[in-house]
Write a structure and sequence with these properties.
The protein is of the alpha/beta class. It contains 8 helices and 17 strands.
Length: about 425
């Protein structure tokens, strides 16, 4: 467990300074042994202030399906950062940020990832100011820069707010050669499509990427949400941004898949994973049918969970095209989400689910573990690990590395997942 922090350690926080932008990223590659590991950090929530204790109660609404109620956290007021020479209480920023960095350091000291995924809600945008919002990126990526670890981000609903834009976060990340975060959509209106929509190929350990087919693909999607950056309505109120993967992104996803299939005709198709901050309705539907503690081990305390396509406490179905596109993606093994801090289970989507017309095909839907000390909840923090092995195509080994150093909920996402029996995961708290 993270111990008390001294004044010296507090005042000498380490920040990672970016260097000049470069487009020359080294290709991601499997190891010589044919393996590739990812560490996923979810909901770090840097920059959160004293008042940022989000109410995770649930609001009744008879406009939702019977089994589902939307989570509706209230607005969170801002506060100024305390100067470095003050020792803040244990539940305030910037001590929370130091504790979050401690979680990252503990995980990365215990694991050996080839890529780190920052899967949304990097920053609590409602608690930051226009002149300091993106400065938190240097704190967030410091453990990665210190270890020369490449990373890739998706953005979440707290990353887009009146004083913080995901476009600005992307521009800040682009200054780091180790950042692989991109925006591959050619659109005149990024507010509609979001920003962090792209894919990354992972190549074999040897071979020229110009002439070698990828061994795996990683897809990243922006589920948006939050508030429009620096926009007010006619009454002077901030404006909510829709919280789902937009149709323009789905169109890009399908077109890009077709292009890749034409470029790399492969039987079987190239295996892939997907990352999106806010989970789809399918995760909520599966949860409503019952998450087994031994077949889908993990904490399941955000129940019902909050998912994409909620407007005015009503499920709108705007994520249906995205879910259909995921199901239609040949070779896609699993989708990894965060957002719901009290969930970290994986589920195999097979057959029909309550309240849905789509039929699952065995796609695995996974939550990560709440990684940051910002954001609601005091469950033990951690990071989901994902292990790919070219000798075991079509399956993934995954576990959560906790801040205590312990391993939690280790499972194999294969054809029998959902029937295999695992030890249950106990709720633990800090």
């Amino acid at each position: 467990m993270l111990g008390e922090l001294s004044l010296l350690s507090f005042a000498t926080r380490i920040f990672a300074a970016p260097v000049a932008p470069t487009s020359n990223r080294n290709p991601l590659r499997f190891s010589a042994a044919g393996t590739f590991q990812l560490s996923i950090f979810e909901d770090l929530h840097y920059g959160e202030g004293t008042a940022a204790h989000i109410d995770c109660s649930y609001k009744q609404s008879n406009t939702l399906p019977d089994f589902l109620q939307a989570k509706t956290p209230p607005g969170v007021p801002s506060m100024h950062l305390l100067p470095d020479f003050e020792i803040p209480p244990s539940n305030t920023n910037p001590r929370q940020d130091i504790q979050s960095t401690g979680v990252m350091n503990t995980v990365l000291d215990a694991e050996s990832p080839q890529l780190v995924v920052l899967n949304g809600d990097l920053i609590t945008g409602e608690n930051t100011f226009l002149d300091n919002s993106t400065a938190y990126i240097s704190q967030i990526v410091a453990p990665l820069v210190q270890r020369s670890l490449p990373w890739a981000s998706t953005y979440g609903n707290h990353d887009e707010n009146y004083n913080l834009s995901t476009a600005a976060i992307l521009a800040t990340e682009a200054a780091y050669p180790l950042s692989y975060t991109q925006n591959m959509l050619n659109t005149s209106n990024p507010a509609t499509s979001g920003v962090s929509n792209y894919y990354l190929p992972i190549y074999p350990s040897t071979g020229d990427p110009a002439t070698t087919a990828p061994s795996a693909l990683l897809w990243f999607f922006d589920s948006r949400g939050g508030l429009y950056y620096q926009q007010l309505d006619s009454a002077g109120n901030t404006i909510q941004q829709p919280g789902w993967v937009d149709q323009s992104v789905v169109d890009w996803f399908l077109a890009t898949q077709a292009s890749l299939a034409a470029t790399y005709p492969s039987t079987p198709p190239i295996p892939s994973l997907a990352f999106v901050h806010i989970p789809t309705f399918a995760s909520a539907a599966f949860q409503s049918a019952g998450v087994s503690p031994t077949h889908e081990p993990g904490i399941n305390d955000d129940n019902p969970l909050a998912m994409q396509s909620i407007q005015n406490n009503t499920y709108t179905g705007h994520d249906i095209p995205f879910m259909q596109a995921l199901l239609d993606t040949k070779g896609l093994i699993a989708v990894f989400s965060g957002h719901d801090h009290g969930d970290d289970w994986c589920a195999k989507w097979t057959g029909a689910l309550p309240g849905m017309n789509l039929t699952g095909n065995g796609l695995d839907l996974c939550f990560g573990r709440h990684s940051g000390y910002g954001g609601y909840g005091n469950w033990s923090r951690g990071s989901r690990q994902v292990w790919l092995d070219l000798d075991l195509p079509g399956q993934v080994e995954t576990w959560v590395r906790l801040e205590t150093g312990e391993v939690s909920g280790s499972v194999v996402l294969n054809g029998s997942y959902g029937m295999d029996v695992y030890p249950p995961v106990a709720d633990t708290y800090t």
